[in-house]
Each structure stands twice: as C-alpha cells, then as structure tokens.
Amino acid sequence: MSTQPPQPTRAPQPARPSLTERRKAATQLDIARAAAELFAERGPDGTTAEEIAHRAGVALRTFYRYFRNKQDAVAPLLAGGAAQWRARLAELDAGVPTALERSIAEALTPVDTRTDEALEWTRGLLRAAQDDPALRAVWYRVNQESEEQLAPVLARLAGEGADELEVRLAAAAATDAIRIALETWAATDDPPRGPRSPADLAVRCLRELTGGLRLLER
C-alpha cells in the first residue's frame, strides 16, 4: 500500500475553443455590436434584423443561424462581461467574500476606452429594455445563465464540504447585485467611475444581499 500523501485535486481546465468556435464567437459579437449600435440610434422598434445583418457585414441567413430575433442578437454583448468576471474570480487565491467583492469591483471598473464603451452599450441597452419586453427577457435570461455558471465557480472557491444551498444563494446574490447595480446606474447619467458607479453600487448591493450568509462571513 502506498504511503504517499494524497495530492490535491485540481479543477479541470476548460478546453481551448477550436478555430471554428472562435470564429463563430467573433461573428456573434460583431452582430451583437451592430444590433447595439442600431438600437441606440433607432431603438429596437425602428431596427430590423436585415439592417443588423447589413451593419455587421453578414448575410441575413447567417444572422438567423445564430439568433432567433433582433433582441436576442445583443445577448453576447450583455453576457461577455459576466464571462470575463467569472474567469477572473476563478483565478483569485482568496476567501470567497474577498474574491467576490474584488472580482466584482474589478469587472465593473472601466480601465480603458474599450471597457468604457462596453458599459455605455450596456446602459443604452438597459434603457431600451424598459420599453421592450423581448429585450428585457434577453437581459433576464443572460443573468439566469450567469448565475447557473457562477455556482460551480463559487463551490470550488469555497472548498470541499461547502453547503450547496449557501453556494447557490451566494451565486444568486452576486448575480443580482451586479444586475441591480447596472440597472440602477443605467437609469442615471452618473459616470462609470466613482460614487454610484456600477462597481460602487454592486459592492454595496452584494453586502446588503449577503449579510446573513455564513459562506460569506468575514
């Protein structure tokens, strides 16, 4: 019988996307940006799928290969920030409370023109969603999917023996903290940095929503 101590189990690393998958994702993002630009210019009601496809430089059949309707086209843009946030969170070597707060603050604090632009696109889309139930449904779906993908990340950070219910509650609270922060900020003309910025609001929401969770006790 071996007397070697057991080695820690590493979380499996996701496989690198294939070239085809990367091209598909790039095309989807091009279409999403085109849709966001047109929604900002004309609103969802004043925009057609044909116009989005033309702006993105793809055929209409390509548009419908990836998206069911024009509102669905912005989903990759709304989901992209959450995917980067979860990836950053998974890399942090810290306790769950510290890792969550730090990753949320970093994810929602713009550091260059590109991230400034991404936040402004989100603001425009959330404003448009107020009067467009289909666009609002896309936003809610993106958040639900993000919550489901966040739970296993938090479970790994919490370690073996973490209470499953606490993990799910933490995932829901963190996702809602970001959602509510972005919706609150989008309804204002506040800048993307400083007091009442998305990062500031999200950290405040997280603390309020997780005050009773043992998993996030400091």
UniProtKB/TrEMBL annotation:
Compositionally biased intervals (Pro residues): 1-15
Keywords: DNA-binding, Transcription, Transcription regulation
Annotated spans, Disordered: 1-26
DNA-binding region location: 48-67
Coiled-coil intervals, chain numbering: none
Gene Ontology MF term list: DNA-binding transcription factor activity; transcription cis-regulatory region binding
Annotated PROSITE patterns: HTH_TETR_1 (PS01081), HTH_TETR_2 (PS50977)
InterPro entries, per the entry: DNA-bd_HTH_TetR-type_CS (IPR023772), Homeodomain-like_sf (IPR009057), HTH-type_TetR-like_transc_reg (IPR050109), HTH_TetR (IPR001647), MftR_C (IPR041347)
Positions of the HTH tetR-type domain: 25-85
Protein name, as recorded: TetR family transcriptional regulator
